[in-house]
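Journal club prep, notes for RB
We'll compare a predicted complex against what the paper describes. Inputs for the S-adenosylmethionine case:
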Amino acid sequence: MRLHRNLVLAVIDGLFNIFNNGEYASKEVEKLLKRDKRWGARDRAFIAETVYDIVRWRRLYAHIAEAGNHFDRPNLWKMFAVWAVLRGYQLPTGWKQIQSTPERRIKGKFDEAKKDRRIGQSIPDWLDELGVSELGEKKWTEEITALNQQAEVVLRANTLKTSRALLQKQLREEGIESFPLKKYTNALQLKERANVFTTEAFKNGLFEVQDASSQLVAEFLQVQPGMRVVDACAGAGGKSLHLAALMENKGQIIAMDIYANKLKELKRRAKRNGAHNIEPRHIDSTKVIKKLHEKADRVLIDAPCSGLGVLKRNPDAKWKLESSFIDNIKKTQQEILQQYSKMVKPGGKMVYATCSILPSENQEQVNEFLASEFGKDFTFVKDRKILASKSGYDGFYMALLKKK
Ligand SMILES: C[S@@+](CC[C@H](N)C(=O)[O-])C[C@H]1O[C@@H](n2cnc3c(N)ncnc32)[C@H](O)[C@@H]1O
């Protein structure tokens, strides 16, 4: 395998911005891929996967490269060289930035580093302590190991326009092989990573990219066509679109968020999906919620969270998250539960969900809510704690509550 200099330069630039300028890996990769129109699919895949890999294993590679916590260009080149050696690439002899790479010592240092979970699994000390205190040593080790694997690409067939079997056939005609996931009604997993966004099937709204665990949330809410459903933290609408499909476009989905720009994106996606019953509503004051008190058959709270269940796809969160952010987001989660639950009609149902694996963001929030003044009107029906290590997909939590 040969390394191409201009691709590696792009990787180094991307890493520099992610580690030093607070850029998100996803945004940075998107930007890098626009740099040279002549790059083909393989070049693009190299850039995207290498950037994500080095972000994911930052602490481990920095340790082996003796780069400390300092991500200037010389150190990023050293970390890149570690990545390349561990991946079995032949290091080019003429590249001065990596000329002094101690190739033979890298493998030994790698084996040694694997013995310390914080370095071997590449996580900050505080996050490791948190994981152990919340899940226990064994579960946390299994979980962080799973969360450090690259995410599979999973699609949700949009049943407003197609079926899973038809979608699989159409994708095959476009050169993309996939297979259905048995335990997930509408999920197709790609056999090999591919850019599905350029397919006709995508442009025609036949599917959305959505992790398998995430596809369980809308189903958990037990919606029926004709209901009034509030998706209270709708963001760009991943779950709203699924709800629209489950409701066969009948009834009303009020999709809310405190960020108007996310709802704009939701509108665009709804159009592509042929979802006509979604009404975006910007939460710009508490009145928006008050107006809907006791008006909804179903309320979905897909709460803002630490995102620790989705590290597979957002590995940079390991370096951007702070424990104070997690403390604050937990307060927001409880406030949202307290306030937004008031929108549920007597006899109606509510789902509280997160893409976190921490009990303190999940079942403990639900228990606190149920014990509170507003929560005593609700009964606990069931919950699901999805671990990445058990499911093979994202870590998620969902609880179904019923209003008396
Ligand atoms: C986990 S994300 C939602 C993802 C989305 N439901 C989907 O399936 O694509 C949580 C969302 O909650 C929003 N949010 C944060 N604080 C909120 C609040 N107080 N009220 C409503 N939404 C809020 C965030 O902007 C974010 O879009």
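Talking point for the session: The pocket of S-adenosylmethionine is lined by residues 232-239, 256-259, 262, 283, 302, 304, 332, 336 (CB under 6 Å).
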